[in-house]
Structures are given as C-alpha cells and as structure tokens.
Specification:
single chain, 346 residues, mainly alpha, two-stranded parallel sheet, 16 helices, 7 strands, globular
Length: 346
Amino acid sequence: MTEKGYSLNDSQGLPLPDVLADFTGGPKTPVSCMGKVAALLYHRFTKGGLPIAMVSMDNCSHNGDKLKTAITAFAEKWVENNLVEPEFLTYVTSNKVSFPWTMIDKITPRPNTSVEELLKKDGVQDLDPVITGKHTYVAPFVNSEECEYLVIEDVFPNGRPALEKSGFIFTDRETVDKVERMKVCTCLNPLHTALAVFGCLLDYKLIAEEMKDSTLKTLVERLGYQEGLPVVMDPGILNPKEFLDTVLGIRIPNPFMPDTPQRIATDTSQKLSIRYGETIKAYEKSSTLQTSDLKMIPLVFAGWLRNGIRNWQKKKNRLDFWYCPLSVLEMHSTLKREDFLTTYLC
C-alpha cells in the first residue's frame, strides 16, 4: 500500500466516501482499509485491551505516524458519534499501543511473464496470475530480488520474538529515519528515478537493460558516487558506500528483476523534491561544496522535462504531468531525444 492508502481525505480536504461511511457506521461493518484496521484494534480493546504494536510494513516515509494518525482519527470520530466507548480513544493514544516506524527495502515488481515461463519450463504448474478489479496482480509466484533490508523501531509494548536472529534490524526511531533518508535521498531511489526518466525517453522496457548502456550507467554512477555520497546521511548500522555498491553492481542490473521504467516513472513530479531536494539542500549548507558542482541532478530534471514534451506531443499538446511550465517544455523541444542525454552528460 502507498501513502494514498493511509489518506482519509480527498484533494479538497474532505473525507473520502468510504471513510465518511465508516466514521458514521462504526467498527461493525467497516469498508475503508484504515477503518478495517481500526475495527480490528477496537476488537482487541473489547477483549481486554492488551498491549500491541501496530507495525506498518508499507514503503512510505514515517509510516508509523501515518498509521497512528489514521487510526486515531477513526477512534475520535467513533467516540464523538457515540459508536464506541471513550476509553477506546484513551487506549489508542496510550503507551499500550505503539506505531513503530519501519524501513523496508526489497524491490518486488508485479508478477512477470518471463519469470512465469522460466518456472513453467521447470515443471511448475498453475502459475497464471489474477488481475483484480482494482488492477492489482495476484500470482502463486513472486519475482523479487535476493537483497532485502527491514529496519524496525524497537517499540513493542507486549514484547516481540527475537527476529534479529533472522536478519531483522531493530533500532531507535532516529536511526530508522536515517536509513530511510540514505535510501530514498541518495543510494537507491534517486538512481531508480533517473533510470525511469531516461528509460521512458529512450524506449527501454526493463531497468536492468538500461545498465548495459554505458551512458546511462555513467549517469547513475556519477549521481550516486560523485554527487550523493559526499552528503549522504550515514545511519551507522548500514554502510552507505557498500549499500550503493550493491545497488549499482547487483540490484539494478539483475536480469531476473523484470522491473520497468514506466512503472517507476509513475508520479515522478511528486518524487523529484524528496529524491533530490535533500542533496541540493546539503550542498547549499556546505562550506566546501557548491550547488554549481551538481550536474547529474539537473540532468534528471531536464530529462523529465524532455520526456514530458514527448508525452505532450503524443497526446496532441495535452500536458499529462504536473508543475511543468510550457515555456520550459518548448525550450527543450528542439533537441532530438536520442541526442538529449549525451548532449547534457558530456
């Protein structure tokens, strides 16, 4: 689930229809996702109110806070509408219920036919994926990478198993945040976004295939090692340089990870600020580094604009991405897309 799944309001700040129905309907027959989670927590409250950790495993920033905000909103509305006891809100906001932050990192794209065919050749049967009514994919197999990280804020009021023996990393909230910022702002997500932008522009179908292009490989190497690492957030429990080595040497080039630039490029306009903004701000604050030294980050923005022009032209001059001034699009439209990357990179 993405950040959207935790949102209770629409773009106008009004409650979503399912959420509004749950606010007035109470915990008996919830419809919304967060309403169902709140109802489960209410059931635990009615059966003794024992302590519990509500652990979000979704790949979004400060996920524990997002979950807590949503569940608390349901508790407040249900109490306000006399649908539950006031003590339920006290329970949710007490130290009996925790909402730890987590950072999960394991690239897992939707089930791909190439992996399906490999498994069929090995004699595995009944692998056909199912596409749900909401266009999500369910299949008996998962194509994901071997590499995985799970960092969890160690706040479990009812205790927990010794999952660190299986590779889980338990730490404090500040360190979880540092690991996330290392990944999201420097060592993984900015590189993925860069490849997604230029992969769409150059008609690549797989991220792994892009790493065979020496120009694109140079782009993400400079982006990570030269521009990112000098200002990276070092969490202490993971080495940023080693993490980046794995990303560029193993994870992104993995041919068995059939991830597409088109998927990763979704909502790029909403990702650019967090993917690259922290690095830019760090350069601004530095006494030894200059923002004028940044070449790859502006190149990614320029590539995003150039790809926007292409989409704009394909769809008969209808802009299909946000916050891109038309004058800027027209300025870049004179470059052929095949020449664009090398023109800016050299």
